[in-house]
Amino acid sequence: MSKLSPLVIIVGGGFSGIAAAKKLYEAGISFLVLEARERLGGRVFTKTISEGLYLDLGGQWIGPTQDRMYQLCEEHGLETFETYDQGKNILDLGGKIRTYAGMIPKMDLISLINLDLILKKLEKLARQIDINYPWSHPKAKKFDAVSLDHFIRKNSLTKSCEKVIRVGCETVFACELNEISLLHALFYIRSGTSLECLINIKNGAQQHRIKGGMQPLVEQMALPFQDRIRFNSPVIRIEKTGNEVQVKGNDFEYTAQKIILSVPPPLLAKIRFTPDLPTEKRQLLERYSMGHVGKCFMVYEKPFWREKGFSGQAVADKNSPFQTLFDCSPADGRFGVLMGFTIGNRAKSFFLQDENARKAQLQEILELYFGQDSKHPILYKDFTMSDEIWSSGCYAGIMPTGAWTGFEDAYRKPSNPYYFAGTEASTRWNGYIEGAVLAGEAASLQVIKSLQHD
Ligand SMILES: Cc1cc2nc3c(=O)[nH]c(=O)nc-3n(C[C@H](O)[C@H](O)[C@H](O)COP(=O)(O)OP(=O)(O)OC[C@H]3O[C@@H](n4cnc5c(N)ncnc54)[C@H](O)[C@@H]3O)c2cc1C
User: Fold this and answer.
1) What is the mean pLDDT of residues 315-325?
2) Which pLDDT does position 4 carry in this prediction?
3) How far apart are CA 269 and CA 101, in angstroms?
4) Residue 307 belongs to some domain of the structure
5) Is 180 close to ligand 1, i.e. is its CB under 6 Å away?
6) Residue at a domain's end among 144, 173, 199
7) Average pLDDT value for the chain
8) Which of 121, 163, 360, 447 is deepest in the core (most CB within 10 A)?
9) 295 is a domain residue
10) pLDDT value at position 79?
11) Cβ atoms within 10 A of the Cβ of 450, count?
């Protein structure tokens, strides 16, 4: 058993935990990061396949208004590049393929008008939400009593419109739409600036990727304090006695004064606290669910679809296992990479099949969309964080109906000596890497302040 006694222990070495650690390091405060996995990054995971070919199996995109992410890239000398976004997009409704340019899918006029009205309505409602106090909206109880699914069914006048708006929302929220409260959806939109910002590639959250992948950034951030990170160290119990806290795992025990918790809500719920966390936080933790997403990559010798005038983007209804497709080729286009998102119930069915069947399904879709050239991939790789015990889902924790109005800010509220980070604790870019960084930094500032007062 270790005798080390840092002032602060950070549980979790994702972007949030490492952003918290960076702040403490800069402030000269002793700390230790305990990370369950053998790597940093958590829900960010870059797999290098060969020289020049890497796949971001977790979070990968950043975009305007995610200011901290751009600052961190600059600070660590990492370059960003534009997501490929030129040429024809594909809309696949019931296997009927249409192509269109720009953001407006090719549909009948009534469906288009209906789609525009729903998007505008969501945008307008989201603009009224105070991200610090979503429960304070005069209609908060009404919005929190229904799911996003309810809102979409109520406002969709045509089947095509409903299908397209569903696919868009499933891709943004990464869950079945009956799992998410309308109030949480509005908060999430506002937290990410606007719906347009969440959906768009250009001027949106999908605008840029980092050359070499996202995980190298968190590794660069942690370089100066490598010796203060302990890997393969899941925290199981946290016990407070007097002014000290014991943090315990299977083969370690550390004592500290303050604890920053930066793990996803369902995993926080599994840590045994003595005395227990405040009742409202415990009850809220039990309500959170994680989304379900799979990323499925087909790699080619070159991005052949670009020469044929395709962007590589597609949107599909339930006849396909993939809600959306994106061009995820490396910056230099040395390889061609198409990535399909399978989300919610589609992901559940998809991952019940063996890998050969999964590959065959993506192959079939790509041939349908991009023709014979897609017949000869050099690699197939898929991945879902839902199968990872130390993530238990993604992109992020989802608030079901009644949670915001029932528990307000119970999740992020500190209860000395415990401080809560992780993207779910962020009011800005909640669910995103930017949110994870902001929440980690905020938790460290709270700890520093509290140490000054002790
Ligand atoms: C497929 C996918 C696509 C995404 N796409 C994007 C995107 O393009 N852009 C974007 O901004 N966001 C995206 N996201 C979301 C983004 O990745 C997350 O919001 C962000 O990485 C969360 O960071 P975090 O530090 O809060 O949590 P995590 O990354 O989950 O870090 C928590 C850490 O805690 C560790 N841990 C858990 N339990 C314990 C324990 N008991 N003891 C010790 N350690 C523990 C975990 O191993 C993990 O390393 C995506 C996520 C996924 C999975």
Assistant:
1) 96
2) 65
3) 45
4) no
5) no
6) 199
7) 96
8) 447
9) no
10) 98
11) 15
Whether residue 184 sits in one domain with residue 238: no
What are the tens digits of pLDDT across the range 236-285? 999 999 989 999 999 999 999 999 999 999 999 999 999 999 999 999 99
Examine the pLDDT at 2 and tell me if it is beyond 80: no
Atom of ligand 1 nearest to the CA of 439: 26
Q: Is residue 191 domain-shared with residue 227, that is, in the same domain?
A: no
Q: What pLDDT is attached to residue 388? A: 94
| Confidence class for position 180, pLDDT limits 50, 70, 90 | very high
Residue-range definition of the domain harbouring residue 271: 8-42+214-289+398-452
Q: Residues marked as binding?
A: 16, 35-36, 235, 341, 424
Q: What region does 429 belong to: left with phi over 0, alpha with psi -120 to 50, or beta?
A: left
Q: The tokens of 96 are what?
A: 């009927």
Q: How far is the CA of 108 from the centre of ligand 1 (A)?
A: 40
Name the CA dihedral angle for 404, 409, 410, 413, rounded to a multiple of 10 degrees.
170
Residue-wise DSSP of 142-163: HHHHSBHHHHHHHH--SHHHHH
Question: How many Å lie between the centroid of ligand 1 and the Cα of residue 142?
Answer: 31
Q: Residue 41 Cα, ligand 1 centroid: separation in angstroms? A: 7
- For residues 173 and 305, give the distance between their C-alpha atoms in angstroms, rounded to a whole number: 28
Q: Report which ligand 1 atom has the smallest distance to the Cα of 39.
A: 49
Tens digit of each residue's pLDDT (9 = 90 or more) over 132-161: 999 999 999 999 999 999 999 999 999 999
Among 18, 33, 433, 444, which residue has the most ligand 1 atoms within 8 Å of its CB, making it the best to mutate? Answer: 433
CA dist., res. 274 & res. 237, Å (int): 8
ipTM: 0.99
Q: Are residues 135 and 182 in the same domain?
A: yes
Ligand 1 atom closest to Cα of residue 34: 43
Q: List beta partners, residue 260.
A: 10, 419
Specify the CATH number for the domain of residue 117. Answer: 1.10.405.10
Same domain, 220 and 152: no
Does the pTM surpass 0.80? The reply is yes
**360 lies in a domain?**
no
- End-to-end, the C-alpha distance of the chain in Å comes to 28
Q: Which amino acid is at 44?
A: V
Point out the ligand 1 atom lying closest to the alpha carbon of residue 40. Answer: 49
- The protein residue with its alpha carbon nearest to ligand 1, atom 21, reads 43
Q: Examine residue 419 and state whether it is found in any structural domain, yes or no.
A: yes
Distance 311 CA to ligand 1 centre (A): 28
How far is it, in rounded angstroms, from Cα 75 to Cα 68?
10
If one counts the domains in the chain, the total is 2
> 340 in ligand 1 pocket by Cβ < 6 Å?
no
For 22-68, the pLDDT digits (tens) are 999 999 999 999 999 999 999 999 999 999 999 999 999 999 999 99
